Amino acid sequence: MKLYYKPGACSLASHIALREAGFNPEIEVVDLPTHKTAGGVDFYTINPKGYVPALITDEGELLTEGVAIMQYVADLKPEAKLLPPPATLARARVQEALNFVATEVHKGFSPFFNPTTHPETKAAVPANVGRRFDALEAQLADGRDYLLGADFTVADGYLFTVLGWSPYIGLDLVKWPNLSAYRARIAARPGVQAALKAEGLI
Fold first, then answer.
1. Any idea of the CA torsion for 135, 137, 19, 28, to the nearest 10 degrees?
2. Mapping DSSP to helix (H, G, I), strand (E, B) and coil, where does residue 39 land?
3. SUPFAM superfamilies given for it (predicted)?
4. pLDDT one-digit tens code per residue, 60-101
Protein backbone atom coordinates (compact mmCIF):
# COMPACT_ATOMS: atom_id res chain seq x y z
CA MET A 1 0.00 0.00 0.00
CA LYS A 2 1.04 3.58 -0.57
CA LEU A 3 -0.02 6.57 1.51
CA TYR A 4 0.14 10.15 0.28
CA TYR A 5 0.52 12.50 3.23
CA LYS A 6 1.58 15.84 4.62
CA PRO A 7 3.72 15.64 7.79
CA GLY A 8 1.64 16.15 10.92
CA ALA A 9 -1.58 16.78 9.00
CA CYS A 10 -4.73 14.70 9.42
CA SER A 11 -3.10 12.08 7.19
CA LEU A 12 -0.93 11.19 10.20
CA ALA A 13 -3.94 9.38 11.70
CA SER A 14 -4.11 7.06 8.68
CA HIS A 15 -0.36 6.56 8.85
CA ILE A 16 -0.62 5.62 12.53
CA ALA A 17 -3.38 3.12 11.73
CA LEU A 18 -1.17 1.47 9.11
CA ARG A 19 1.81 1.21 11.46
CA GLU A 20 -0.30 0.02 14.39
CA ALA A 21 -1.79 -2.66 12.14
CA GLY A 22 1.70 -3.88 11.34
CA PHE A 23 2.02 -2.51 7.82
CA ASN A 24 5.15 -0.82 6.51
CA PRO A 25 3.57 1.30 3.78
CA GLU A 26 5.26 3.18 1.02
CA ILE A 27 4.73 6.87 1.75
CA GLU A 28 5.07 9.97 -0.37
CA VAL A 29 4.76 13.53 0.83
CA VAL A 30 2.52 16.01 -0.95
CA ASP A 31 3.12 19.75 -1.10
CA LEU A 32 -0.47 20.92 -0.82
CA PRO A 33 0.05 24.55 -1.91
CA THR A 34 1.47 23.39 -5.25
CA HIS A 35 -0.33 20.02 -5.33
CA LYS A 36 2.90 18.30 -6.29
CA THR A 37 4.12 15.03 -4.86
CA ALA A 38 7.73 14.58 -3.78
CA GLY A 39 8.23 12.87 -7.13
CA GLY A 40 6.97 15.93 -9.01
CA VAL A 41 3.62 14.45 -10.02
CA ASP A 42 0.47 16.58 -10.13
CA PHE A 43 -1.41 15.26 -7.10
CA TYR A 44 -4.76 15.92 -8.78
CA THR A 45 -3.93 13.11 -11.21
CA ILE A 46 -3.72 10.76 -8.23
CA ASN A 47 -6.51 12.15 -6.06
CA PRO A 48 -8.92 14.50 -7.86
CA LYS A 49 -10.02 15.87 -4.47
CA GLY A 50 -6.55 17.35 -4.09
CA TYR A 51 -6.01 16.71 -0.40
CA VAL A 52 -4.51 14.10 1.91
CA PRO A 53 -4.73 11.38 3.02
CA ALA A 54 -4.96 9.26 -0.09
CA LEU A 55 -4.25 5.54 0.03
CA ILE A 56 -3.45 3.32 -2.91
CA THR A 57 -4.46 -0.19 -1.89
CA ASP A 58 -2.58 -3.35 -2.80
CA GLU A 59 -5.18 -3.83 -5.53
CA GLY A 60 -4.35 -0.42 -6.99
CA GLU A 61 -7.56 1.24 -5.83
CA LEU A 62 -7.64 4.83 -4.56
CA LEU A 63 -9.22 5.30 -1.14
CA THR A 64 -9.64 8.77 0.35
CA GLU A 65 -11.08 10.29 3.54
CA GLY A 66 -9.21 9.49 6.72
CA VAL A 67 -12.08 7.90 8.62
CA ALA A 68 -12.68 5.48 5.74
CA ILE A 69 -8.97 4.68 5.40
CA MET A 70 -8.54 4.02 9.12
CA GLN A 71 -11.46 1.61 9.24
CA TYR A 72 -10.37 -0.15 6.05
CA VAL A 73 -6.86 -0.67 7.42
CA ALA A 74 -8.19 -1.89 10.77
CA ASP A 75 -10.43 -4.44 9.08
CA LEU A 76 -7.49 -5.79 7.08
CA LYS A 77 -5.78 -6.78 10.33
CA PRO A 78 -8.49 -7.68 12.86
CA GLU A 79 -5.87 -9.30 15.07
CA ALA A 80 -4.47 -5.82 15.78
CA LYS A 81 -7.79 -4.97 17.48
CA LEU A 82 -7.87 -1.43 16.14
CA LEU A 83 -11.63 -1.84 15.66
CA PRO A 84 -14.09 -4.11 17.48
CA PRO A 85 -16.01 -6.71 15.44
CA PRO A 86 -18.75 -5.50 13.06
CA ALA A 87 -22.36 -5.29 14.24
CA THR A 88 -21.39 -4.72 17.87
CA LEU A 89 -22.07 -1.77 20.14
CA ALA A 90 -18.33 -1.53 20.76
CA ARG A 91 -17.80 -1.01 17.02
CA ALA A 92 -20.46 1.69 16.97
CA ARG A 93 -18.76 3.40 19.92
CA VAL A 94 -15.50 3.65 17.99
CA GLN A 95 -17.36 5.02 14.97
CA GLU A 96 -19.09 7.48 17.30
CA ALA A 97 -15.68 8.61 18.55
CA LEU A 98 -14.29 8.86 15.01
CA ASN A 99 -17.18 11.07 13.98
CA PHE A 100 -16.82 13.27 17.04
CA VAL A 101 -13.13 13.81 16.35
CA ALA A 102 -13.81 14.44 12.66
CA THR A 103 -16.75 16.82 12.92
CA GLU A 104 -16.28 18.51 16.29
CA VAL A 105 -12.54 18.55 17.00
CA HIS A 106 -10.77 18.34 13.63
CA LYS A 107 -13.20 20.69 11.92
CA GLY A 108 -13.08 22.96 14.94
CA PHE A 109 -9.48 23.75 14.04
CA SER A 110 -10.19 24.28 10.34
CA PRO A 111 -11.19 27.98 10.40
CA PHE A 112 -7.87 28.86 12.02
CA PHE A 113 -5.88 27.35 9.14
CA ASN A 114 -8.04 28.88 6.41
CA PRO A 115 -6.54 32.20 5.23
CA THR A 116 -9.98 33.41 4.10
CA THR A 117 -11.55 33.04 7.57
CA HIS A 118 -12.89 36.27 9.05
CA PRO A 119 -10.71 37.44 11.99
CA GLU A 120 -13.62 37.25 14.44
CA THR A 121 -14.34 33.66 13.45
CA LYS A 122 -10.66 32.77 13.74
CA ALA A 123 -10.46 34.38 17.18
CA ALA A 124 -13.28 32.13 18.40
CA VAL A 125 -11.49 28.91 17.46
CA PRO A 126 -9.54 28.35 20.73
CA ALA A 127 -12.65 28.69 22.89
CA ASN A 128 -14.70 26.43 20.62
CA VAL A 129 -12.02 23.74 20.50
CA GLY A 130 -11.45 24.13 24.24
CA ARG A 131 -15.06 23.17 24.90
CA ARG A 132 -14.53 19.94 22.98
CA PHE A 133 -11.39 19.35 25.03
CA ASP A 134 -13.48 19.81 28.18
CA ALA A 135 -15.77 16.99 27.06
CA LEU A 136 -12.84 14.71 26.28
CA GLU A 137 -11.18 15.54 29.60
CA ALA A 138 -14.34 14.42 31.40
CA GLN A 139 -14.50 11.23 29.34
CA LEU A 140 -10.98 10.31 30.44
CA ALA A 141 -11.57 11.22 34.09
CA ASP A 142 -12.35 7.62 35.11
CA GLY A 143 -8.72 6.64 34.53
CA ARG A 144 -9.19 4.80 31.25
CA ASP A 145 -6.12 4.53 29.04
CA TYR A 146 -7.89 5.26 25.76
CA LEU A 147 -11.12 6.81 24.54
CA LEU A 148 -13.11 3.61 24.72
CA GLY A 149 -11.33 1.94 27.62
CA ALA A 150 -8.29 -0.31 27.81
CA ASP A 151 -7.79 -0.89 24.07
CA PHE A 152 -6.19 1.50 21.60
CA THR A 153 -8.34 2.02 18.49
CA VAL A 154 -8.12 4.05 15.31
CA ALA A 155 -10.12 6.78 17.06
CA ASP A 156 -7.20 7.29 19.45
CA GLY A 157 -4.72 7.69 16.62
CA TYR A 158 -6.99 10.30 15.07
CA LEU A 159 -7.45 12.28 18.28
CA PHE A 160 -3.71 12.10 18.99
CA THR A 161 -3.07 13.68 15.60
CA VAL A 162 -5.53 16.53 16.09
CA LEU A 163 -4.36 17.25 19.63
CA GLY A 164 -0.93 17.89 18.15
CA TRP A 165 -2.27 21.03 16.50
CA SER A 166 -3.15 22.66 19.83
CA PRO A 167 -0.07 24.92 20.06
CA TYR A 168 -0.95 26.52 16.72
CA ILE A 169 -4.12 27.99 18.22
CA GLY A 170 -2.55 28.84 21.57
CA LEU A 171 -3.95 25.95 23.60
CA ASP A 172 -1.71 24.24 26.15
CA LEU A 173 -2.87 20.75 27.07
CA VAL A 174 -1.59 21.30 30.61
CA LYS A 175 -5.04 22.79 31.24
CA TRP A 176 -6.49 19.32 30.55
CA PRO A 177 -4.27 16.92 32.54
CA ASN A 178 -6.15 13.76 31.57
CA LEU A 179 -5.94 14.70 27.91
CA SER A 180 -2.27 15.63 28.22
CA ALA A 181 -1.41 12.28 29.85
CA TYR A 182 -3.51 10.49 27.23
CA ARG A 183 -1.57 12.07 24.37
CA ALA A 184 1.77 11.26 26.01
CA ARG A 185 0.67 7.65 26.45
CA ILE A 186 -0.20 7.35 22.77
CA ALA A 187 3.01 9.08 21.70
CA ALA A 188 5.01 6.32 23.40
CA ARG A 189 3.41 3.50 21.38
CA PRO A 190 5.85 1.84 18.94
CA GLY A 191 3.48 2.15 15.98
CA VAL A 192 2.95 5.83 16.65
CA GLN A 193 6.68 6.36 17.08
CA ALA A 194 7.28 4.66 13.73
CA ALA A 195 4.80 6.94 11.96
CA LEU A 196 6.22 10.08 13.57
CA LYS A 197 9.78 9.11 12.66
CA ALA A 198 8.83 8.28 9.08
CA GLU A 199 7.26 11.73 8.70
CA GLY A 200 10.27 13.46 10.24
CA LEU A 201 8.28 14.71 13.22
CA ILE A 202 10.67 13.29 15.82
1. 60
2. coil
3. GST C-terminal domain-like, Thioredoxin-like
4. 999 999 999 999 999 999 999 999 999 999 999 999 999 999
Rounded to 5°, the CA angle 125-105-33 comes to 75
- What pLDDT, on the 0 to 100 scale, is given for residue 192? 98
> Do residues 100 and 182 share a domain?
yes
Kindly report the number of other CB atoms within 10 A of residue 79's CB atom: 7
Residue type, 43: F
Angle at Cα 38 formed by Cα 155 and Cα 98, nearest 5°?
10
> 3-class DSSP state for residue 108?
helix
6 and 65 co-located in one domain: yes
Which domain, by its residues, includes 118? Answer: 89-189
Prediction pTM value: 0.96
Whether residue 102 is found in the same domain as residue 134? yes
How many domains in the chain? Answer: 2
Instruction: Write out residues in the chain with pLDDT < 50, as ranges.
Output: none
CATH number where 33 lies: 3.40.30.10
Check: CB of residue 2 under 8 Å from CB of residue 55.
Answer: yes
Calpha distance 46→53 (Å, rounded): 11
Shared domain for 60 and 103, answered yes or no, is no
pLDDT at position 33 is 94
